[in-house]
Amino acid sequence: MRLSTYAVTGVASGIGAQLARILKEQGHTVIGFDIHKTQTNIDRFIPLDLSDPSSIATAAAAIDTPLDGLCNNAGLPPRDGLEAAILQVNFLGTRAFTAAMVPHMRAGASIVNMASRAGHGWPTGVEQVKRLSALTSTSQLAAFIAAEGIDATRCYNLSKEAMILWTVAESEAMVNRGLRINSLSPGGIATGILADFQKAFGDKMARNVARAGRPGAPEEIAQIAAFVLSPAANWLKGADIAIDGGMGSFNQSDAMGLDVLRQSTQHDAP
Hints:
By secondary structure, the protein is an alpha/beta fold. Helix content is 50%, strand content 16%. Helix 1 (14-25) links the parallel strand 1 and strand 2 (29-34).
């Protein structure tokens, strides 16, 4: 296995910290980005505040070695009072940072965007995502939020819908540059911000976690992120991968009345 150099945002905790650990255990070089300083399981730390355009530019300019991959893991949870910050950090800032990092990437490099199962409502949110995507400055966010009439939970869902659709939109251009881009959509993960999701999504989340048997572990998401970053996933391009312990399938089966198929399979079993 060829050893690589990977960049990981949100590296100080949760999924990002676990991804850095896994990549280091595989022998790779890890450049970590976060608003909170850490030296754990990384070779170099670069401060990054995705709410600050100057910090984004400075962080990207600090890269002095070719990269084999970037995991855009940093993000904010659905917390009241953070509406504008959620849209900026989770999508607009991440998009700007990625654009600044692409020139540092080797041919064959992989970009992994951390979306969410909460972004799977994108089919009904496409037009709102387009309106968000058209914003060019953080100063426009307050007016956008007021005009759209959205709260922190909707801002979070919208930011993750945008991550999924941006990944799709960028896929062909990235392929033409010799790069890959994919998104991952975790659901119900036991990190330090799980309580924010429990408050935002309430009984719906509780039911989903109960049906799955438990929330996911950060390392379980990180293991899949490490694979998608790696050359072993070279034919995976423009995809969104749900990592939710089956929660999405359970809900889809309910919505489509697919229990009849399950019963039929049971009846046909020898």
